[in-house]
Every structure is written in C-alpha cells, then in structure tokens.
Q: What sequence folds into this?
C-alpha cells in the first residue's frame, strides 16, 4: 500500500506540478462521485469515516495488513474503504472469504487493473485478467510445470541444494563457532539455487545472475506493495506519468526482460542441456513449437510464467523458512520438540531426504503454523467483481475491487485458540489445511485463483527446515535475548522479517 506521506512527498518534489495538482484536487472534491454502494434503503456496507479526496489512506500504516485488521475489529469483516477516489471492499473473516472465493468465485475471478502491475508484468498467471488466456496459462503451468509428477522429478535438485545449504553452514561453523551466520541471506541464496536449476537447468549458473534476481525480487516486493498516484486518483493519471511510480516500474520490467532474454536465448542456442529437457524453459519452448497445443504461446507468456516461478518459487518459500526458524528460535520448547522428532527418524550424520518427510507430523505442523502467523502474501492478490452480486445482504456492484486479508483471517478468534501464539500443536490431528478448502487458513488463496505452486513450495520448505533442525543446534547472537528478538514485519507485497535473521550455529550434527 502506498502511504499518504509518500504521495505528498512525491507531489511536493515539483512545485509547479503541485499547484496544478492542488487545483485538480479542489475540482475533484466537488465533482467526483464514488460508486454507489447503497441505494435507497439497501443495507449499507460499514465504512470508517473518510477525509475528502484522500478517503481512508490516513488510517493505513506502512504495514497495511495490520492496519486493515485493526479497522475490521471495529467495522466488521466486510467493510468499504476509499483509497483516494477508489472504493475497495476489505474482507477479514473466513465466512466472507468463503463467500468471495467459493460462493461467488467466478464473479470475483478477475484481477483489477493497476498502474504498476500492468507495466511490470508479462502475460503471467498471477495478474492476468480472467478469461481464456488465463485458463490456458493455468493449464500449462499446472500440468507441465507443477504437476505432482513434475515436482517429484525435481527431487534430486532439492536434495542436492539442501546438501549445499548444509555444507555452507557447516563451513561457516568450522571457521567461527561464535560469529552469527546471516541466515536470511543464506536461505534466499538456497531458494535462488533451487529455482534457478528447476527453471533453467545448469545452462546458466552465474553469481551475477543470482545477484540480479535478488535485486529484482527485493525491488519488486517494494514496487508491487504500493498503490501509485494513478491507482489512488484515476483522474490524476496524467500526473502519475510525470512523477509517479510508472517510470520506476518500466525500468524494473526492462531489467526482468533482459534477464529472461538471456536465460531463454541460452536455451535456444544450447544443443544439449546437462539436465535433459525437464526444466521450465525447455518445456515452455517445446510447447511454443508444439502444433498440438491449441494456444498461441508467445515469448511474453513464457516470460510471464518464468516470472511466476521466480517470484513465487524463491520469494514466498524463502520467507516461510525464514519465519519458521525465527519462531523456533523464539520458542525453544517447539525447537526441541521438532529436533526430537526429526532426529528420532533420521540417524545421526545422515541428511533428511524427501521420503522421510511423511513421517514428520510435527514438522508439517510447524510449517502450517508458520504459514498461519506469517502468510508470505498477507493481502492476497486483489480481485474484482465481473458482475453485481449480493454478499451477507450487501449489494456489491460490478467492478468492485476486493482485498482479502489472509493475515487477519488467520487471527480470527472464532477459528483459532489463542491466535497470536505460535502453537504448532493446534494442527496435530486437525484436518485444517492450506489447500483452499478451509477458509480460516488461506495463505495460498482459494478458488480458481489459488496458487498452483503449493506442493513445490511446501515440500521444499519442509525439506530445508528439517535438515536445518536435524544438522545443527541454534542460538541467538551474544547479548540478544528472546524478549528483545525482533519479530516485526517488513512492509511490502510479501512480508519478510523486519530484520534479517542472524543466528549462531552452536553444534554441527553432520558426519
């Protein structure tokens, strides 16, 4: 979410434009009418008091998911907020989420247009409007890239890269058993390696490209986590093009385009891939030239799907492992319980492999509880209604933009006992899962637009976490106490830790 302060600062950078803007604001205040959400005696959606022109922007902090949660406690699980000129429907309960993503799933299956995402994105799965192109992209991504069989075929890559992760931490510990390791950075590098190999095989494995992906993902988290001036005030779209995020978004897209071109061209020119033809790029290129595919796959589609793999595969999975380690170091009793489970199943000196994971019920509970408390994308990708409908007695007009606060829903007291506490035990023996059927727990969304990479993300997170816990003992850096350990969120489209995770490797349990 963009902050009011950011908008004001941006406008004030150019005094002449500011004068024009203020004149426009004056005119808008008296001439612009919002969408009519209540006619006659119809039930009116609860809405916090808003200010002229800026609406409810002033009620949002940099951590918008938390601000919206606080407002929902006062105004209800379905509330109407105005971000500038534009009304948004905010969903903050499992019942309302079910109404949006199950009862009226088709009605809310499309994505709203947004200045930054429209510029940045290629023809991707996450932001593509609902329609035949999106259905074909989902089919390709699900069947050819993220099916159960394909994910099983990445087993060797996952286990080799987890081995490299463990070796890197072991080397650090052997050189210094008291200096903290920058675990957040190590985990990001690990996921970068996994996804690069799945996406591209071994054709391109350069440190330069890893650094580029990290830079682009960090920049993308910030850019996509904000509304631009044009999103807040469509009548000032001309101003957005002058001093808004548009130019930064265009530069960001161009950087991704150069990266994708380098990866794709390397595959086109390569006569032989060291890992066969099982990686994303080769599969997509073969489908592009396959006459049996009843869909015209363009390079823009290929780049969009590669972007989905990089952004979802690296960013959200790394964030989940990072938060899981944070919660375990903060709660040593859970760390001990998990270590006892893992070390009771896998012998000392051995690595945890994929076949071991199904025996580890507490490990799976820890991952679930981490996803509950720290959904990587706390505000799910926005939706928009394609026709008028009724929810809970409220009429929702066609074209209504919707934000579903997964972070707030995971703290709903009617669904969760002591919701603010990290309690993996709540999932032991529970049928509640993150696959889109239990609307009190939707870190990956639900309905038609549910994330298709759930299995890839969770099995990778489980394997990495199990080995981190099995192979090492961990403690906080000298002078740091659990009471002072910062568990704050960082603002952005995905929610990372506010501070990078730094831990001391106390003992190494590898042969």
A:
């Amino acid at each position: 979410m963009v902050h009011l302060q950011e908008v004001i600062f941006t406008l004030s950078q150019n005094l002449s434009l500011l004068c024009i803007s203020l004149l426009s604001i004056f005119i808008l205040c008296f001439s612009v009418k919002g969408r009519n959400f209540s006619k006659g005696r119809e039930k009116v959606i609860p809405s916090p008091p808003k200010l002229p022109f800026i609406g409810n922007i002033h009620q949002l902090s940099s951590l918008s998911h938390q601000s919206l949660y606080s407002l929902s406690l006062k105004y209800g699980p379905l509330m109407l907020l105005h971000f500038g000129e534009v009304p948004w429907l905010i969903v903050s309960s499992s019942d309302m989420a079910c109404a949006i993503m199950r009862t009226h799933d088709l009605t809310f299956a499309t994505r709203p247009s947004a200045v930054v995402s429209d510029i940045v994105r290629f023809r991707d799965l996450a932001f593509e409007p609902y329609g035949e192109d999106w259905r074909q992209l989902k089919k390709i991504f699900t069947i050819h890239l993220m099916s159960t069989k394909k994910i099983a075929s990445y087993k060797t890559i996952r286990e080799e890269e987890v081995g490299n992760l463990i070796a890197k931490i072991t080397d650090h510990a052997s050189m210094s058993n008291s200096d903290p390791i920058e675990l957040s950075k190590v985990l990001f590098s690990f996921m970068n390696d996994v996804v690069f190999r799945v996406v591209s095989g071994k054709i391109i494995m350069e440190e330069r490209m890893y650094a580029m992906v990290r830079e682009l993902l960090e920049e993308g988290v910030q850019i996509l986590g904000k509304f631009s001036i044009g999103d807040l005030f469509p009548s000032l779209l001309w101003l957005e093009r002058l001093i808004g995020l548009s130019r930064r978004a265009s530069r960001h897209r161009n950087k991704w385009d150069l990266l994708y071109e380098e990866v794709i061209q390397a595959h086109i020119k390569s006569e032989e891939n060291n890992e066969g033809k099982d990686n994303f790029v080769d599969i997509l290129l073969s489908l592009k030239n396959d006459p049996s595919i009843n869909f015209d796959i363009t390079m823009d589609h290929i780049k969009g799907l590669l972007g989905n793999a990089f952004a979802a595969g690296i960013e959200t999975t790394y964030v989940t492992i990072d938060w899981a380690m944070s919660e375990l170091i903060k709660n040593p009793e859970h760390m001990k319980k998990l270590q006892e489970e893992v070390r009771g199943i896998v012998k000392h000196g051995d690595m945890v492999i994929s076949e071991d994971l199904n025996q580890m019920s507490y490990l799976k509970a820890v991952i679930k509880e981490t996803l509950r408390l720290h959904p990587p994308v706390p505000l799910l990708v926005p939706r928009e209604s394609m026709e008028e409908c009724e929810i809970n007695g409220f009429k929702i007009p066609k074209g209504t933009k919707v934000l579903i606060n997964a972070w707030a829903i995971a703290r709903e007291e009617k669904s969760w006992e002591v919701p603010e506490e990290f309690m993996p035990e709540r999932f032991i023996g529970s049928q509640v899962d993150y696959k889109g059927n239990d609307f009190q727990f939707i870190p990956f969304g639900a309905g038609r637009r549910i994330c298709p990479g759930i299995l890839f993300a969770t099995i990778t997170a489980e394997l990495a976490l199990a080995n981190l816990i099995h192979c090492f003992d961990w403690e906080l850096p000298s002078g740091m106490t659990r009471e002072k350990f910062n568990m704050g969120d960082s603002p952005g489209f995905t929610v990372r830790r506010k501070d990078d995770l730094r831990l001391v490797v106390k003992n190494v349990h590898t042969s």
